[in-house]
Amino acid sequence: MNLLSIGGSDPSSGAGIQSDVKTFTTLNAHCLTVITAITSQNTSSFGMIEPVSQKILRNQLDSVISDFKIDGIKIGMVYNSQIIKTLYQKLKKLRIPIVIDPVIKSTTGGILIEKSAISDFQKFLIPLATVITPNKFEAEILSKTKIVGKNTPEKIAKIIQKMGAKNVVITGIKTKNDQITDFIQEKENKYQISSDKISKINHGSGCNYSAAMIFSLANKKNIKESVKFAKEFTYNSIKNAKRLGKGILITDIQNNINVELSHAISKFIEIKNIYKNIPECQTNFVYSKQKPKSTKDILAISGRIVKTGEKVTVAGNLAYGGSKHVATALLIMNKKFPQICSAINLKYQNQTILKIKKTKLLVSSYDRNQEPKSIKFKKSTIEWGINSAIKNSTKVLDIVYHKGDFGKEPMIIVFGKTPKNVLEKISKII
Ligand code: PXL
Questions:
Q1: H-state helical runs in 251-324
Q2: Which of 30, 159, 172, 398 registers the highest number of CB atoms within 10 A of its CB?
Q3: Are residues 88 and 180 in the same domain?
């Protein structure tokens, strides 16, 4: 997948083009770039801006558009009217999802668009937007209206939508009780999505949000799914933000639960003949937050990895609470061995067990027949099973299996610290 980021260069690599290269690369997409301006800035202060000439801007756009099949475009810093009009001329005929992040001011105080360019931004760029992602401050500038009282988020979003954006997402609209709420105005419907707020002044989160959004849209996800993905991605980037310079933190997209699990699932379904290891009840691949309290803290595929002939496909999206069975097994394992955060279930085959026994992987099993009737109806069998398989083990187990019961399919569950770690173990046993 090729995604194009159009925006300014940030030498601190916290925001702008450099940040988008990191995001798209992490998401396994190829990042094309068209630079509109060069800024000098670091984590403490903003220096200066030099917009590029119309000639080199046009040439950059022609080079990428003439060569690549572009699946999505993100537009960030545009700085002046000339840049805006050139972008409009080159992009207006393309039928590709476009996310516009209307960047106005940097956290360190840099003004990223000339005041005189705002009206051309509204006139030429906003109509190109599949989604526009202003934060509260940017939405107020674009609509020339403060969000307060009768001037509700909906009213402000509709003003921006009237300028031509198909969908408007106003981020950070309300922050209350440690929650942060985004307001979404689609063509017909409107809604809010809230998530936990992390109070960390950072550099990069706005760029992470809009970049994750175009990635999701380019993957044919709808607006709501894309907002959820962008929120989750950004939440993690802020949570992992690091003090790399002397000033504010820079967001970090490396340790992202969502991304790690998606990568591992993509790798898993590409394993040769993997369909032979998918059980009748299909497969789930799960990854937990640290210290999960319930299966709601465990990310999983809301459908399953399903067998379709000799191929396997992923049905559904990643969602917390998306698995009951494998997630419950992981929850129990994690209680005893907190470093174990990922698991997958595979079809039980004698040949797999023989292979496992030839490796150094630690394996245990349980017999469903041994489950006391008294708890059979109170707790889930998997809970009892994993507990009984691990109770005598002082070392971290890699694999737990059972041979089934009347009407119950036998199963192998592979555990690991991360999805990547689980994949490494799978490669040794199949
Ligand atoms: O986060 C918005 C942004 C976008 N692009 C560039 C920036 C910033 C914020 O500092 O510098 C180039």
A1: 257-269
A2: 398
A3: yes
248 plus 285 within the same structural domain: no
Helices (H), 309-378: 325-336, 350-358, 373-376
Nearest atom (ligand 1) to Cα of 37: 12
pLDDT at site 198: 87
- Tell me which residue of 244, 329, 335 sits closest to 285, measured CA to CA: 329
Residues with CB under 6 A from ligand 1: 7-8, 10, 15-16, 39, 41, 76-77, 103, 106, 110, 112, 206-207
Whether residue 360 sits in one domain with residue 334: yes
CA of 105 to the centre of ligand 1 (A): 8
User: Could you tell me the residue range of the domain that residue 244 belongs to?
Assistant: 2-255
For ligand 1, the distance from its centroid to the CA atom of residue 37, given in whole angstroms, is 11
Listed residues 209, 234, 255: the one ending a domain: 255
* Rounded distance between C-alpha atoms, residue 385 and residue 365, angstroms: 8
The predicted-structure confidence for 32-64, as pLDDT tens digits, reads as follows: 999 999 999 999 999 999 999 999 999 999 999
* Overall average pLDDT of the 336-358 stretch: 97
| Residue 94, SS3 per DSSP | coil
pTM: 0.78
pLDDT the model gives residue 369:
85
